[in-house]
Write a structure and sequence with these properties.
Layout: H1 4-11, H2 15-22, H3 29-42, H4 48-55, E1 60-65, H5 71-85, E2 90-95, H6 100-112, E3 117-120, H7 127-134, E4 139-142, E5 152-156, H8 158-171, E6 177-181, H9 187-202, E7 212-214, H10 219-230, E8 238-241, H11 244-257, E9 266-270, H12 273-278, E10 284-287, H13 290-305, E11 314-317, E12 320-322
Parallel strand pairs: 1-2, 1-3, 3-4, 4-5, 5-11, 6-7, 6-8, 8-9, 9-10
Antiparallel strand pairs: 10-12
Helix pairs in contact: 1-3, 5-13, 8-9, 10-11
């Protein structure tokens, strides 16, 4: 097996420089390229267990998601992992499949295998229990926040994303707009509902509570709740869906009912850019900054792993509306 000394001989760099790179430190770009080329050529394998015992650092970051099947989380993690790998860290990705007990167990697993930090998309766990579990491990929340838990977080500006989508539909003269929103125990879902209510207040448009349908951020919810909206005595003339999977479900339900989107019912989806672009005609979409969320989470995590003691950051990144439908 190749050793760090072999890497040093191959690159002509000092052991200190090689070690700095291996432990996630910053090295010159040309040195990083030489080291990575030598690692590939010599098929160097890091013994993470042995290094962890020696340095008390595993060079791993735990990533805990509600599900690994969502393309939204996939894009966030891909960007996160790319940035961390450039600094010598590797991701250990787990999911809890929306189950509160599994969420707790997976957190315990990540702490137990001595990850250096945790990037977490929470759903059920509260601040006190999380603080008890993670102790001194740096935690960065992504997509959602936990009230009263002090840590870094990277989220999209969910309130203004829905507000802007609703403004677009108001400009098209819609006044009965259905909203398919997620579980209200999740911070992003709460913010999206606030944006929906606030835009009605600001534009003095009467709000029918029947137009608000709460789902579970899954395909089945989107499918079922689109049908609920269409079965109302006075159905909406437009629908705004606030999650990737629910967007798929809603479009599927419309197709099965023979409803042409957006001609018969105007429609704005969420994050599912590929689907909304390939259907005919293409549909407008709220696109969250998924890659930017991953990159920023990695940047902050690396700062924490280098010992930064600055106050926790809450980054709210702007979403944008991809508008394919002509007004």
């Amino acid at each position: 097996m190749s050793t760090i000394k072999d890497i040093a001989r191959e690159t002509g760099l000092s052991l200190a420089t090689i070690s700095k790179y291996m432990n996630g430190g910053h090295v010159l770009e040309q040195n990083r390229e030489r080291i990575e080329a030598a690692i590939a050529k010599l098929d160097y394998k890091v013994n993470y267990f042995a290094r962890g015992l020696k340095t008390n650092r595993s060079m791993t970051v735990g990533v805990l998601l509600p599900t690994i099947s969502s393309p939204f989380f996939g894009q966030v993690v891909a960007a996160l992992d790319a940035q961390l790998r450039r600094r010598g860290y590797h991701c250990v990705v787990c999911s809890y499949e929306f189950d509160p007990q599994m969420e707790l167990e997976q957190l315990q697993l990540l702490v137990g295998i001595n990850v250096d930090g945790i990037v977490f998309v929470p759903e059920h766990i509260g601040a006190a229990r999380l603080a008890e579990l993670v102790e001194d491990v740096p935690v960065i929340l992504v997509d959602r926040v936990i009230p009263d838990f002090r840590c870094d977080a990277v989220v999209a500006d969910s309130l203004n994303a829905i507000y802007s989508a609703m403004e677009l539909l108001f400009r098209r003269q819609h006044r009965r707009i259905g909203l398919i929103v997620g579980p209200q125990e999740i911070s992003t879902a709460r913010e999206r509902l606030v944006g929906y209510r606030r835009v009605h207040e600001d534009y003095r448009v009467p709000l029918d509570e029947q137009l608000i349908q709460q789902g579970n951020y899954d395909l089945e919810s989107g499918y079922r709740l689109f049908n609920v909206l269409m079965d109302l005595p006075e159905p909406p003339t437009a629908v705004c869906v606030t999650n990737y999977d629910m967007t798929v479900g809603a479009i599927t339900a419309a197709h099965e009912r023979g409803i042409a989107l957006p001609e018969q019912v105007d429609f704005i989806g969420f994050d599912n850019l590929d689907l909304c672009r390939v259907v005919t005609p293409p549909l407008d979409i709220v696109e969250q900054p998924m890659e930017e969320m991953g990159r920023e989470a990695a940047r902050i995590m690396l700062e924490r792993l280098r010992g930064s003691k600055s106050p926790p950051q809450l980054l709210r990144l702007k979403s944008k509306i991809r508008q394919f439908t002509q007004p």
